Amino acid sequence: MTIYQSFKKAIVLIVALGTVYLVAQLFNYSKVSDRDKDPENSEYMSRYNVYALKTPDKVTFGGETVPIERWDVKESLDRELLVNTYWQSQTLLFLKRSNRYFPIIEPILKEQGVPDDFKYLALIESGFVPTIKSPAGAVGVWQFMSGTAKDYGLEISNEVDERYNIEKSTIAACKYLKQSYKKYGTWTLVAASYNAGRRFIDKQLKLQDAGEYYDLLLGEETGRYVYRILAIKMIMEDPAGFGFKYRASDLYPDIPTRKIKIKSQVKNFAVFAKENGVNYKVLKNFNPWLRKAYLTNKYKKEYEITLPAKGYINFAFSDYKTPDKSLPVK
After folding, report:
1. What are 251-264's pLDDT values in tens digits?
2. How far apart are the first and last CA of the chain?
3. b or e along 107-121 (b: 16 or more beta carbons within 10 Å of the residue's beta carbon)?
4. Residues 205-228 pLDDT 10s
C-alpha cells in the first residue's frame, strides 16, 4: 500500500467518523444539559399552564335549578366547560358576535315571553353565522328545517327564505319553544327537544320512565346539548373568570339600521343598493333572506329591507367597468 493510498483511507475514515458524530448529536438534542435550553425548564414553559375549572354550586337555565349536586350532572357540565373554555378561538368568536346579535334577539325573547337563556341556544346552534346551513338542510341562526319553518309562518321560496331573517326566525322559534313548554312544562326539556325533536324526546321519556332531561340517557349530541348551553352561558356571563380578555373595541359592533319597505318588484338589487347608499355586498349581508339578485314579488307583498343607518358606511363604492374601461349603460 502506497503512502498516498494510506493517506486517502485516513481521510475517508475521518470524514466517516465526523458524519457519525454529527448524526449522533442530532438525535441527542433532547439531552442537552443546559437548563436554559431545556424546554421543560424554560421561562416559556414555566408560564404555560392548563387549569382544571371549578364547577359552580348553583346553576340555572330558564329560571330552573340544575341539579349540580349529582355527580353525573356535574361531570357532564365540567366536560362542556373544559371544551368551550379551551376551544379559545371559537368561544372568542362567540363573544365577539354576540355583541352584535344579542341586542336583536333579546328584546324579541322578552316580548314573546321566552327566557333570555334561549339566546345561548341560538348561539350554539349557529355560532351566530346568519348564513349557516347544516348538512341536513337546517338554515339560519335558529337552524330551522324547511317544513318546520313553514309550519311557524316563515316564507320559503326560490327568491325569499325567511329562515335567514334573524328577527322573523326568532319570532318563529319563540312560537315553537312556547308550544313545547305547554307540552313539557320545563324549559330544559324544551331545549333538548329543540335539538332532538319532540317525537324522539317523547319516546325516550316513555321508554325510560323519566320526567326530566337530567334523568334521560341520550345519545352524544342531545346528551351534551343542554350542558353545552349551560357552559356557554357561564362563560359569556363571566368571560374574564374563564381567562378571556379583550377590549370593548375587539367586539363586533351593533350597527344601527334603517328599514326600507317595498311592495313592488326589484329588478336589480345591485342598482337598488346603490340608490339607497350601499353596495350589493352590504345589502346582502344585512338581508341574507333575499336569495336572488332580484325580487319578482308577484303578489305585491310588503317586505322590509334592512340597511345600515346613514352615516354607518365608512368606505367608498366602486363601479363595474367593461373590458374597454367604460361604464356600462344601466
Report:
1. 999 999 999 999 99
2. 94
3. ebbeeeebbebbbbb
4. 999 999 999 999 999 999 999 999
Model confidence over 289-303: pLDDT tens digits? 999 999 999 999 999
Q: Which residues does residue 156 pair with via DSSP β-bridges, in sequence order?
A: 161
What would the grid cell of residue 244 be? 378571556
Phi–psi pair at 257, nearest 5 degrees = -130, 165
- Burial (CB count within 10 angstroms: exposed 0-12, middle 13-18, buried 19+), residue 148: middle
Which is nearest to 177 in space by CA: 87, 253, 108, 269? 108
| Beta carbons within 10 angstroms of residue 146's beta carbon | 14
Burial class (CB within 10 angstroms; exposed 0-12, middle 13-18, buried 19+) of 30? exposed
Length of the chain in terms of residues written: 330
Instruction: Supply the pTM of this predicted model.
Output: 0.82
Number of neighbours of residue 288 by Cβ within 10 angstroms: 18
What does DSSP assign to residue 290? B
Spell out a b/e string for 158-187, using b for 16 or more CB atoms within 10 Å of the CB, else e: ebbbbbbbbebbbbbbbebbeebbeebebb
Could you tell me what percentage of the chain is helix, strand and coil, using 3-state DSSP and rounding each to the nearest 5?
55, 10, 40
- Our CA dihedral for 302, 294, 275, 104, rounded to 10 degrees, sits at 60
Instruction: List residues bridging with 308 in a β-sheet.
Output: 257
Q: Which of the residues in the chain have pLDDT under 70?
A: 1-46, 314-317, 320-330
- Residue 142: half-sphere exposure toward Cβ, Cα within 13 Å: 29
Chain Cα centroid distance, residue 32: 45
Sole residue written with cell 356600462? 328
pLDDT reported for residue 22: 58
Cα 51 to Cα 82: distance, rounded to the nearest angstrom? 9
Local structure of residue 215 (DSSP, 8 states): G
